[in-house]
Amino acid sequence: MNILYLNHYAGSPALGMEYRPYYLAREWVRAGHAVTMLAASFSHVRAKQPQLDPNAGADGTSETIDGIAYRWFDTPAYQGNGMGRMRNIASFLAQVWQQADALVAELKPQVVIASSTYPMDIWIAQRLARKAGAKLVFEVHDLWPLSPIELSGMSPWHPFALICSSAERAAYRDADVVVSMLPKVHEHMASRGLDLKKLVIVPNGISPEEWDGRPEPLKAEVAACIGAAHRAGRHVVGYAGSMGRPNALDTLLDGAKLLADSPVEFVLVGDGHERERLVRRIEQEGLSARVHWCGTIPKAQIPSFLAAIEVAYIGWQRVPIYRFGIAPNKLMDYMMAGCPVLHAVEAGNDPVAEAGAGITVPPESPEAVAEGVKRLLGLPAATRKAMGKRGRTFVLAEHAYPVLAKRFLAACMPSAPRPGQSTIQGLPPRPSQSPRRP
């Protein structure tokens, strides 16, 4: 099949997050399908931005990564979640909208996937799918506008929230398939018009091959930091991932204060909007002797980092949005590494508890985090090792991308075409319709 995958923030191992589109697409390419990824040239979640061809013009810069045909559209850089990010989103969507006829003629997609975190790309994906007579798939990362409303305090009547709400309802109404990473979304989506027969759950996962063989050694400064803690007779609690408000790292720092007299140090690797403020907190509050921010490390070094520490921390805010479930990438890495997990969460699902891979404590409670650290580090090393082994077994069975990619694509293959809809094999396309504009 020819698959057209719209993901504004798509990345790769060399560029950084988002990784999920890359891993799914790579599996589809290996299965013999052709995948074209449409993405913006600038994304705040990438560690590195792609190099643009100055002669590419409106067609975007083409690049092939592991058999996936990426098409980068030149979008403005931005910081934070203000108007700069809005301009970046609008630029990407406008360019793909304008290129719809050319993209359909060139790529002849049979499946079009809208998957950009925000839902407004459904209008562009719908335009492409209708022109091509293709299957329209909407992939849900987070529930927008509910996520910015409940996580960031955005008013439900904010113009951006209203646009997101309109796009969300259009997606649930018009998509042939809705793929959700979150497992407990059925009631919410049905309340906004989704026929639940369209819904399939495909969570985040890991690529097993990246965990085969010897991992890439840690950067010298990170290895030295962990080594110094161990030589001083201290255990290490680690965190690897984004440094933003949803990651509840303030709770971890507050918990570290309560453990000032315990033989434990904390090592953080990663970057994000909150990094500068958090690093200032570490310095200003006298935590730097026991809490260390060591910058970012390549994804290939994550297994080495997790193998070097005793406990991995992941925390969340106490917000209602998590009643629909969670699907964090870093938790899959933690568990695949066989590292026992301290999970500070209250959500619709809890993979750590489900797998028996660590300890779950209430979110936003420094006391609970400190007590959880003590409990885990007070266990025999063999018990922690058994926790880690259970986590790895769970991930391999439930969250391996070769399995997830097959599940995703199987949902895109209807047993019979709907009235007026082409089959994926290329029977006559749908009657021409005027696309709905946002």
From TrEMBL:
List the source organism. Answer: Ideonella azotifigens
**Gene3D superfamilies to which the protein is assigned, alphabetical:** Glycogen Phosphorylase B
Q: What is this protein called?
A: O-antigen biosynthesis protein WlbE
Residue ranges of the region described as Disordered: 416-438
Q: Which Pfam families match?
A: Glyco_trans_1_4, Glyco_trans_4_4
- What are the Glycosyltransferase subfamily 4-like N-terminal domain coordinates in residue numbering? 16-205
The family database entries (InterPro entries) matched by this protein are listed as:
Glyco_trans_4-like_N
Q: Which gene encodes it?
A: wlbE
